[in-house]
Amino acid sequence: MMAERAFRFGRARHLVGIAGLPPVARGTVGVIVLNTGLMHRVGPFRLHVDLTRRLNALGYPTLRFDLSTMGDSGASAEAGSREEQIRADVRDAAALLAGHAGCTRFVLVGLCRGAQSAHIACSEAGVAGAVFLDGYIYRTFGFKLRHYLPRLLSPARWHGFLARKLRQAVEPEEVTFGSVYPPREQVRGELVDMLARGLRLCFVYSGGIGEQLNHPRQFRECYGRGVADHPALHMDLLDGTDHTYTLLCDRERLFGHVEGWLLERFPPTG
User: Fold this and answer.
1) Is the pTM for the entire model greater than 0.85?
2) Residue 175 has what pLDDT?
3) Which of 10, 42, 43, 155 fits as disulfide partner to 15, beta carbons 3.0 to 4.6 Å?
């Protein structure tokens, strides 16, 4: 049975996290859950708490922690880019699970910005896989056809479009800023490299990103068959769910997919 413990750890003892640990270290794969954006380590609506406890019940040691300068974690006082800080934080997290649970391999899990952080940290030694929840995906020609063609053929859509334009002319809408994606070819190249190094990757997309992804085959359109059809990569689109899996039924769907993938690719030992 796993027990949760709070830790202050890291190269400057600046990181704070909650680990689910077995009574005796037994060397199974450890699961490290990263912040969603600037959100505290519990995740949206305690998503990370629920997920790590479910994984603990299956026999996986886990750590949900705050990256440097987020949540309860401070700064390490080291110079370096944000990418370098993320990699160093993940090394510290892996060292904690290695010391307390005997883990030698690790799976990273992240939602949205957390998926982007996991993507960055997949270059670290010991990282054997990752679960990207609403990770990088790019609009393709197929996306645009599926998105715009029904609207062009719908009088109601044209009426709504013209009404919005009239409202904006009188009272312009506020512009919101999301994260800036790196070039698609860069991300594709990094995925190719991860797969060549033997990493196992799971992409799960919610129905809440319909403005970015609107069909399962868009993943293949985006990254090509060499990535999408690779035997070490798995992709799911959970239609009807929201971005943060607020509803319990949606959360169960997500957990079922993540648990099934982990049990198949990284069965716990002991």
Assistant:
1) yes
2) 34
3) 10
